[in-house]
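re: ur question from earlier - yeah i can do the single chain one, its not a big deal. heres the input i used so u can compare w yours
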Amino acid sequence: MRIDKYLAQVTDYSRAQAKKLLKEGAVLVEGVVISDPRYDVSATVAVSVNGRPLRTATPRYFMLNKPEGYISATKDRQHLTVMELLDEDNMEKLHIAGRLDIDTTGLLLITDDGQWAHRVTSPKSDCKKTYWLETADPITEEAKARIEQGIHLDNEKRPTLPAQMELLDEHSARLTISEGKYHQVKRMFAAVGNKVDLLHRERIGDIILDDELDPGEYRTLTSEEVSSI
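and the output i got, formated as tokens:
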């Protein structure tokens, strides 16, 4: 792509600002000063501005350990958003692949690759999500069986897809689902007369939340993690 477009894509500079930097001789491509905004570069070329190396123009993929109290949105006037936890350029191009409620914690995937994000969230992809949860009342075997076979939730045309549940003790379980309906886990338990007090997402597909990430921290996904979706 053109070098001025590249600069605008991997920094917060506008195209006009990029052209000014080029004219000033502040841009190096593979160590060579480039001044022509029409100069073509590849997505993986080494570019620097005023001596600062820039990232490549390839798609970005992050995992975030979402803390409680943040909403899964790009902007909000009333609440803190998970995007405020990121320190990246061109934030407006990043999207959340599979949202979590404000009081739900754990694995959140963020990317600027729309097709990849769709594979994460589409039921057709059968990209399973695993949650650890605690409930107000004991989880009965009857409730476990109903949730595993699928429950017809209010205002939904079809019952939930079959799920898998591992009971950890009377009040806690590990639940795996392959959908992402609105408040799905909480609504499933409400339908069997119970209430979810704590909910934490541990896994999406083969991507497991990095246990070295403290709440609010994030990292880039490995190539293996990206290709697993």
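The chain has six helices and 15 strands. not sure if urs matches, ping me
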